[in-house]
Amino acid sequence: MAEERLVIVGLGMLAMSLASSLKLGRRKEEKNYKVYGYARRKEVAEKAVKDGYLDGICATPEEAFRTGSIIILTLPVPVICEFIKKYSSYMQKDAVLTDIGSVKGCIEDAAMEAEAAFIGSHPMAGTELSGPDALVPGIYDNASIFIVPPEGAEENNIIRIEDLWKAVGGKTLRIGAKEHDSLVAHTSHVPHIISSALALSVLDEEDEKLKAQRFAGAASGFRDTIRVAASSPRMWKEILSNNREAVLEALEDHEKRYYRMKKMIEENDFDAFEKEFAYGGELIREWRKAKKC
Length: 293
Fold this sequence. Notes:
CATH architecture of the largest domain: 3-Layer(aba) Sandwich
Number of strands: 8
Oligomer: single chain
CATH topology of the largest domain: Rossmann fold
Order of helices and strands: EHEHEHEHEHEEHEHHHHHH
Number of helices: 12
Strand order of the largest sheet: 3-2-1-4-5
Mean pLDDT: 93
Radius of gyration: 21 Å
Low-confidence stretches: none
CATH class of the largest domain: Alpha Beta
Strand content: 5-15%
Helix content: 40-55%
């Protein structure tokens, strides 16, 4: 079996979920992965080795970039760009660099500036939790994984990154960086904004009696709708600031739908509202069928 030396730089929830899925052999593939890790806090990497998720540790970013035949950056978007510019020159001749950043345009620009062998990737999977102890083995099973190759990227390198994600059960889809950033603005970034706005509009109440009533009255539907609003504020600041234009366009699309339904209610046109609501339900069922969820 062909062997790849995968070095994961940054050992948070998604990184450790990837490492655990590979080490627990969730998929039998033609390639075998030796998995190494680098974390700013050495004790995090040492624990991952002790728990059997990593084969070894890289002590420095330079060592991580020298060691891997595939290096995957699982860091905040600005830090990914920083690491590419600072350390990609340490990569071996045949190594390829990837990432799991939620925004692709700025990362691809950094890679092109550094002349790094780079293929972007973005798994559409996660939870509102963070940190290595929040790992979820199998989180990538049947998850959509966007593969984002820059123009002129080598086909062999694209396939290597696709093979990595297929090894943990992901379903890969190639897409351009600009197209990706517009897509995730609609499907991920705006939903997080709406979720947070809903949580604030319901729970941020100065009247203690009314606040207690709202806390009591907010049940499972509210809980499910606001779940993602508990994600890291700093992470979302970084994501949104690096995808500002696409997010604003997606928010405008949402506003058109929101104000359309609001107008129906204002005008007592509940027949139209029923049709609009029903159409939304049809689309949800179509989406669930396509996603098998």
